[in-house]
Amino acid sequence: xxxxxxxxxxxxxxxxxxxxxxxxxxxxxxxxxxxxxxxxxxxxxxxxxxxxxxxxxxxxxxxxxxxxxxxxxxxxxxxxxxxxxxxxxxxxxxxxxxxxxxxxxxxxxxxxxxxxxxxxxxxxxxxxxxxxxxxxxxxxxxxxxxxxxxxxxxxxxxxxxxxxxxxxxxxxxxxxxxxxxxxxxxxxxxxxxxxxxxxxxxxxxxxxxxxxxxxxxxxxxxxxxxxxxxxxxxxxxxxxxxxxxxxxxxxxxxxxxxxxxxxxxxxxxxxxxxxxxxxxxxxxxxxxxxxxxxxxxxxxxxxxxxxxxxxxxxxxxxxxxxxxxxxxxxxxxxxxxxxxxxxxxxxxxxxxxxxx
Length: 356
Known about the structure:
By secondary structure, the protein is α/β, with parallel strands linked by helices. The chain has one domain (45-345): TIM Barrel (Alpha-Beta Barrel). It has helices at 11-15, 35-41, 78-90, 118-130, 162-179, 193-203, 224-229, 251-263, 277-286, 297-308, 314-328, 338-345, and strands spanning 51-58, 65-66, 74-76, 95-101, 135-140, 183-186, 210-217, 267-271, 291-295, 332-335. It has an 8-stranded parallel beta barrel with strand order 1-4-5-6-7-8-9-10, surrounded by 8 helices. The termini are far apart. Mean pLDDT is 90; it is low at 1-6 and 352-356.
């Protein structure tokens, strides 16, 4: 006897119940039948507030300088940087991360911690102008500032001296926080960098300044356009494989991430993003802190180049890439598409064109 209110059923219907994943009762296409239905059941949602825009500011120029290998991206003057930051804040982009291009370089990258250096000056202006509407971040490294192009101080044998470099990183962190950075983002992949930076910030009273650690940063071939953007060339045609991660290693990323968290990182990052979705997923499964991923210059420029040749649909592929990174587990995406996506998201006229 059936229970009160129940409807008699046929055993054959139960056999084909959707939980048994049997056709014809189970038809996944039902939930793809219309755009509103697809939107309703979408598992991954991408919004401007999840994006961080990398911006470049160059000392000693009077007009923004286009970067040929990064179409639509420029080296900013201070006025053009502030104007761009205003646009991004108005569009609801979650944050900006600043990279500096100094007019002079030296062996230790002293411009990176000079209170009058281009990034420190720009950070102060940005914090005052948009700091209450978007997160103002600063990349923390010296490769843009050294005359040898490495991410640290060189020893007598031409290798990066890890511990000597940490002293420089501490100075940079304090200078950036004092200038107005809400988040500092060490990207040099030195052992112990997060602990050193956290201690330096706390000692100077910057206990509220957060650290976004480039925790799993690979020695990728996808950084070429970025190095054009910051005018960085490694002396002697060298590389950074001695401190950045080997792209063949996945488990090692968790070692780096967990070490940075133990040292005091508030957020962690995987870089690059699209070629390392497996690493993003693994880190997401292992930690509960905010996870960022950097959709790097080469990943961006490949889309631009293919679209310019008519080989792909720019808007579709760019959105697909960003969504894939979010789907893999990233909470935050650093991307040169930030303004473009935000304009498209809000229906701004001309959003399909290249933004600054």
